[in-house]
Structures are given as structure tokens and as C-alpha cells.
Request: fold
Amino acid sequence: MARVDIPQPRASITETPTGLLITIPANRNWFVVLFIGFWMCGWLFGECSVIVMLARAKTPLPANLFMLAWLGAWSVGGAFAGYLWLWNVAGKELIALRTDTLAIKSDVLGFGRVREFDLAEVRDLRVDRPSPGFTMFNQNSPTQMFGTGTIAFDYGAKTFRFALGLDESEARQVVARLNARHPFQTASAE
Reply:
């Protein structure tokens, strides 16, 4: 029989002067990295070809308008694919538990939106099984279109999730560490 190695945690937890910082690197899906990298080469060829055709202006106006609209849609699709590729290569979630806020950032090379939550209003921090849905990219998208996080909490009349693709066992460890630092109230405690 082959002995199974003990899995190492993905998340790193650091005490900082401002509070607790948890860093969760994105699951590296190398199929997605290679496929989208290859696809982006073809995408770039199509983008450049249409730009050159528009620059020459030898086509009729209706064709130019169609190519301009196509170029806009093509560029949006390419930007999304490029972001997904970058997330797979260099993305990470940063969770900062400070004295008065819980901040969550989906970080790609230093860029990303930070969502800050008033800590007094965060309720029922828990491990929550991700809802079933479209998971082609193994819950690896920071846009959460392809899955949701393993850790959830209630904030007002809405539930928020984070820790994309984190295993339930490790998510329980992260929740325990967060609860040890701040006593999150349960949803029933009002």
C-alpha cells in the first residue's frame, strides 16, 4: 500500500501590526494556463488583423461598423480571458482581519478590488459548502462566476463568501483562527 502524504495548507496566516493577514494563492490550473495562453495567441492575431483592416479603410462603411463592434466584443472577451490567465498564474486572495474591519481582496499582481466590511456587522462566520453550479474552472475565478468560496458570513441581509477553492478541512482551520482573534456573533444572536 502507498502511504498518502499529509497535505500542506495553501493558506498562510501572518500576524501583522494592523491585525491578522491570510493569504490564499489561487489554485493553479495548468490546463487553463496552457489553453488560455495558446488561445490568447490566436486572439491577438484576430485583434491585430481587424485593427489593420480598419486602419486601411478600404472596406465599405457598414463592414467597418461591423468590424468595430466585433473588435469591441472581441476585446472584452480577450480582457476577461487575460484576467483569468493572470489569476491562474499570479492570483491570490488576501483576507485582513483588523480591529474594526474585515477586508477581502482578490489580488492579481498588486491590483484588485478590496471589499471592507464593518466587523461589528459580520455575523456567523462559517465553513459553507460551495453552492453547486458551473465549475469548469474548478472555482478558480476571482469574479466568482464559476464558483463560490468555502468560507461564508452574513452581513446585513446578504451572505458573502471567500476562500475560493479552499478545501473544507483547511477552511475550518482558517475560520478557527479568525474566531480566535475576533468573537464573531452567530446569526441567531441579535
